[in-house]
């Protein structure tokens, strides 16, 4: 048995040499990464030099407009914002997007009458306005303000009014759509948030053509559409429709007076908007 084990574990010279070569190869493979690391040392990045180069690149890029052309060096100066050339707005430090909004405002008839009007422009932040305000120089000579037709004005025209911003313009347009148009300027006081003070501030810049209102055919209109009329509540609209279903078409405003829950004040308000076909 002992002799058998000895014969089994014994190696020939050729086998021994092969094993030695194999061990040497394994040792070389294991040592190779360390040898390569020693021969090729990584270059250490100098953080200060990297940051300086990045800052220089950012500075160079800041001098370019979005079209790739050279942007004027920022410099604050006295300026009149009305029809100010694009290059001057760039010089004041405004972005291309901000300038585009201003030019669009001007294209729709908007003007700057006082420095605070600049705050109305969407995209002009409080910080931007604070920096620009001391340099706004609008001539004191009175500028004739345009008279706006209330039943035709869009949002841009309404925001050109003194004291009317985007929120008020949106409310006015929404109320006009529900109403069908304005019969007179005083109806603006019915717009949420527009009080007597605000009305007196803008009324001189407005005119109203009652012929532009949208009429309601009271004998054909549906409940859902009549419900939009701000002068009528749910019960009153329902009563008008039910009375029409029971008694037939209305011939005049006098027939509507037969609807019990419609008083003289309501009839006076809705009368100009009705047609009887």
Architecture per CATH nomenclature, i.e. the level-2 architecture of the domain at 148-212: Orthogonal Bundle
| Biggest β-sheet strands, sense, barrel | 2 strands, parallel
CATH fold category name of the domain at 148-212? DNA polymerase, domain 1
Write the element-wise H/E pattern from the N-terminal end onward: HHHHHHEHHHEEHHHHE
Task: Name the overall outline.
Answer: elongated
Percent strand: under 5%
Considering DSSP H and I runs of 4 or more, what fraction of the residues is helical? 40-55%
Please state the average pLDDT score. Answer: 83
The number of distinct β-strands equals 4
Multimeric state: single chain
Organism: Mucilaginibacter pallidiroseus
Keywords: Membrane, Transmembrane, Transmembrane helix
InterPro entries: Endo/Exo/Phosphatase_dom_1 (IPR051675), RuvA_2-like (IPR010994)
GO biological process, one term: protein secretion by the type II secretion system
Question: Which tags fit this structure?
Answer:
Helix-hairpin-helix domain-containing protein; RuvA_2-like; two-stranded parallel sheet; 277 residues; 47% helix; DNA polymerase, domain 1; membrane; single chain; mainly alpha; two-stranded parallel ribbon
3D structure, described in words:
InterPro entries: Endo/Exo/Phosphatase_dom_1, RuvA_2-like. It comes from Mucilaginibacter pallidiroseus. With 277 residues, this protein is mostly helical. Among the domains are: 148-212, Tex RuvX-like domain-like (DNA polymerase, domain 1); 216-275. It has helices at residues 2-9, 13-39, 47-61, 86-91, 96-107, 126-132, 155-159, 166-179, 196-202, 223-226, 234-247, 253-256, 264-270; strands at 148-149, 206-207, 216-217, 274-275. It has a two-stranded parallel ribbon with strand order 1-2. It has a two-stranded parallel ribbon with strand order 3-4. The termini are far apart.
